[in-house]
Specification:
By secondary structure, the first copy, chain A, is of the alpha/beta class. The first copy, chain A, contains 19 helices and 8 strands. The termini of chain A are far apart. Chains A, B: Belongs to the FldB/FldC dehydratase alpha/beta subunit family.
Chain lengths: 424, 424
Amino acid sequence: MSDNHVLWKNLGMDLETHDLLCEALPQAFGDVYLSQEHRPERMDYFNMVVADIHGIRPAELVKFQEKGGKVVGSFCIHVPDEVVLAAGAIATGLCSGSQFWVPGGEKVLPTATCPLIKASLGARFDRTCPFFRICDLFVGETTCDGKKKAWEILSEDAPMYIMDIPQMKRDEDFLKWEKEIKFYMKKLEELTGNTITEEKLHDAILTSNNKRRALQRLNSFRKLDNVPISGRDSLLIHQIAFYDDPKRFAQMLNTLCDELEERAKNEFSVYKKGTKRILLTGTPLSIPNWKLHQIIETSGGAVVCEEMCTGIRYSEALVNEEKGSLDEMVKNLSDRYLGNIHCACFTPNRARVDDIIRLAQEYKVDGVIDVNLKFCNIYDTEGYFVEKAMREAGIPCIGIETDYTDEDAEQLKTRIGAFIEMLQ
Amino acid sequence: MSDNHVLWKNLGMDLETHDLLCEALPQAFGDVYLSQEHRPERMDYFNMVVADIHGIRPAELVKFQEKGGKVVGSFCIHVPDEVVLAAGAIATGLCSGSQFWVPGGEKVLPTATCPLIKASLGARFDRTCPFFRICDLFVGETTCDGKKKAWEILSEDAPMYIMDIPQMKRDEDFLKWEKEIKFYMKKLEELTGNTITEEKLHDAILTSNNKRRALQRLNSFRKLDNVPISGRDSLLIHQIAFYDDPKRFAQMLNTLCDELEERAKNEFSVYKKGTKRILLTGTPLSIPNWKLHQIIETSGGAVVCEEMCTGIRYSEALVNEEKGSLDEMVKNLSDRYLGNIHCACFTPNRARVDDIIRLAQEYKVDGVIDVNLKFCNIYDTEGYFVEKAMREAGIPCIGIETDYTDEDAEQLKTRIGAFIEMLQ
């Protein structure tokens, strides 16, 4: 039995079923990633992380737990990692991006639920993901109907805590969010036995901001006329950001960015001349969901920006770094986490449309693709405003709905290929 | 041109399309209602109201507006009518229950949206419902994703105000709801130019409670072994409760209840012996959605209780009637409107399951049908808990999903027929 298998067995996983996933992943990764030309050398670190995604990092987390540490999983970029770090715990993302987990979710959830939510519950109930076995606490939120109600079912099997995210962004909603963050701090103090001090919360803010700065640096290269890294690689890095140790991640990403800086000096592009620059907007693309990037980048397009949770929304805004009282720093967290993330769960959400228009200019995009994960009602409905605003701004835009299966791949290739072809 | 046509024309309605609806309704009403045997005589009032549903009441509302009055429409039983009444305005329901309006909604909303929401937007955008033309203010809420985002689109065409409904029922959520009610009061004072006084709010609480009491009285007869009124007629009365003048409605319903009291004394039942008693739970049945009641009551069943917004949730709990300061009475409204309505929009929502079990006993039901309007994610997901709890309580239960079309009628008849047949 391999070390990984021992680890997974100790976590109570369904080894036989999980092996099927382990067998499929290298092929998928090879097709999408290793087939690319001109990849930066320092993608090696990220390749390694994803190649053993259920081994290396889970083993670290278990080791941390053996020393008494706690691991906290979450499903949404509104949940502030800073609080987890400040309590001396490790934060990890839990969103699931593979069809492999969907049927398990469908055993307990309506079919008409988005694949991300179904996969998340399937990963837990089927015991086929180590992260879903390891976490000492699962932090859900009330962002959308699907998640809000799914957490009730997940809580039958996993230790859950729910943060109630405001649905608007009025002054009273910011105050409410501060309160929720304080409840969350208390919960984590209870979980870890540690006290969250000003010092620790301030350190955590700096650590998280440094991770964001590294992602911002990565994205800055994607604004160049000659883009030195592919959309696929950029997406992978954003996805890994949710799982990796934040300090190591920032360091490795900065090392990669040094390489990209060299490329930029030499005006080196991974894309052929005439490749169309695409901004993706919409629902998140959780690991290993690389489907759309792969289709776009093999159809004459380059994804240069993701106005998504797995993209700009995660990294663009920093938390104010001024050191203050706990109250003041919580206010700064509330301002950033509520004020600067323009999820379709808010009403109204005009700021998202404004963001797309701004990003389309900054990243000099030729076209916008508005992606919706099937049965995500909030992004689907908001598509009305996105597509209207793009028409008014004269930015070509198409709306795409997809899920985690490969069934629509050919159809998407045709539609996206036609869209890119008509871009000037 | 008939008086009604003049009224509708003045309201800017699409007369030609609306005439198609007017032509279809009498047939539908005849099939479901006039075909019944043993209807109480005093259903005549309610028959009249529905026979001219787009004429009589709209004409009253317009007359009220001509004298400077304001009409406020809402879509959810969490929105307190008392505030509207206290401001001297008229409150009217706006939920739409006909497939006629759905295609109009689908022009602006995702197909994967529940028919109630699609019909509501269609009724406005297609200009085929007088209530959707008359209202001076449309009050939406953040109960579910579909509505929350649909209101943004509706607000492009109609004057909207949004109440932010809490997603949980903790102490702080009750305080939040009090605040939202106070915002709403302010909005209505601005709209009407009237001040909401203690006296007026107290009167409004009494008026609304009296309407609820009349509905409670109606429902009390449905607990009897010999049920003197059909589920179809009871549903119609509940549906009309949202549109009619509250004082007149209570008076007419009490008059009907006097007749039912006579019937009860004589142990008169509208049902044949051996008819199975059914409790319906789930999503609301807006007028003229009579489909399920019709199928059940022509398949050997009697609907004796609706654990629905068009049912128990609307009428069962009263607002505390103690006269107090505005703050105190708003607290009473918050307690009732947040504390006593167990919509699936809340997390967790165990109280709803407890209600179903309690109601199943009180109404001596033989079986429970859990109804979901297609694409209503919150009730669909909560079905997991409903069906589990019914299994545990030994109450036969089936889950049904349907929409406003007639396409599934035959399939539903077969499933519901088989379910009723197997009840002992």
